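Reopening: GAF domain-containing protein still failing for me.
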Amino acid sequence: MSHALEVKEQSNMVSVVMEETMLNMRQMDISARGYALIRNDNFLFWSIEDARKANRENFHKLDSLFAIQGYSDPENYPKLKAGFHKYADMYEKMVTHLKNDDMDAYLAILSNDFGRTFWPINDAFSKRLNAFEDELVNEAEERYESAISRNTIVQLLLLLIGIPTLILVLMKLRKEHKDRIALLINLRENNKRYLFNDGDTQFRGAEKILNSSIENLKKAANYVTKVSSGDYQVKWEGLDEENSDLNKDNLAGQLISMKEKMEKVDLENKKRIWSTEGLSKLTEVIRNSEQDIKELTYEVTKYLTKYIDAQQGSLFVLAENEDSDDDHLILSAVYAFDRKKFINKRVDIGQGLVGQIYLEKETLVLTEIPQKYTYITSGLGDATPECLVIVPMKYNEKVQAIIELASFKKLEEHEVSFLEKAGEYIASAIATAQNNQITKLLLEKMQSQAEEMRAQEEELRQNMEELEATQEEMRRKEQLRTQQATSEAE
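Support: Ran it again with your exact input. Result attached.
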């Protein structure tokens, strides 16, 4: 009986050690992949030293068990050992490449797919080992049953004589059972500490614990795959409000934290791209209409209103008077609900919100609109907007224009920042257009003066020609009188 139990126990230990050996490889794989996704040393939960130590201990146990069982596989077992040692070396190289930010070398190791050559060796070894263990257990059971049938009387005598021995055997079996339970409990606690803690404190048996470990590793691999593909809606199965605090520092908690950080980075990238594309398109709009300031102000007002999904936009341009202190703002363009509006409006400096923003030079965002301040008009009637933003458009620290946008939704921070940056582009374009307009007027004035001067020169030339003709006629007449006088004297 003792021999049969020992044979079964040895076979079970072989299975457990083989499972631990494979788990060691899976932990190396998950650790490297997790660290590859987010460079945080916390994701290297399985160090190379732990991996090598686990390999040494597991193969030391297998060597001892095989020696006890008399099992030998000189062809596949050395290859299996070499394969696990090679995988540990590969894991060390992968971690080294990742820490050196050498993704190409890491991907080259990953794409080499070591499993294609290793798994056939593992499969051949496992099949031969399983067949040996099954045969060993069957032989032990047959010997046990044969001994029972042949030696019933002898066993009864031995039972009476060997009660103390039986007690020792029972105590040994009980101790071994306790050791196995302690080993399984330790495995379960490590799973909770490093993988996922479901909050269950009851012992559910060896099969439940081992299956739970494997399932949690599969969950981690699936979670990492989905997050890396951009699926930020993925959930960790089994994680809820009751056990969330238990999983802050283990692999499940770290992966969830990684997902949240990656989602935040992805959102910031989308906002940055949105702003960059908006400014690029705005530059094109400005370039196509910069020759005419009225067209320029209307086109940029239309573009900004549509781009931030507002319902109404107004652009006020600074009108300066060099001959007096009558500087003021002129409503240059209004756009609402895909329609151009024509409204004549003057705003004095300091008057109302627009005039105050000109003085303060700071953006104003209102979510509580003053009563009767503005309405968004459509075919359905008038409605008060939910958000009003007024942005000073500055060029060289001088406010050239002010844009006022009304929307049914609250503008986000990156949208307001986009408007402020766009204001710099537009202020520069308006200043350039105004300077071009002034230059054009000066050129026209100079051309007019030049034309007047040319006309005056022509008139002067004609007068000179007439004067010369008159003088010539006078000289001719004088000569004629002189000739007549000479003739009379003779």
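The CA atoms of residues 277 and 306 lie 14 Å apart. If you still see a failure, please send the error message rather than a screenshot.
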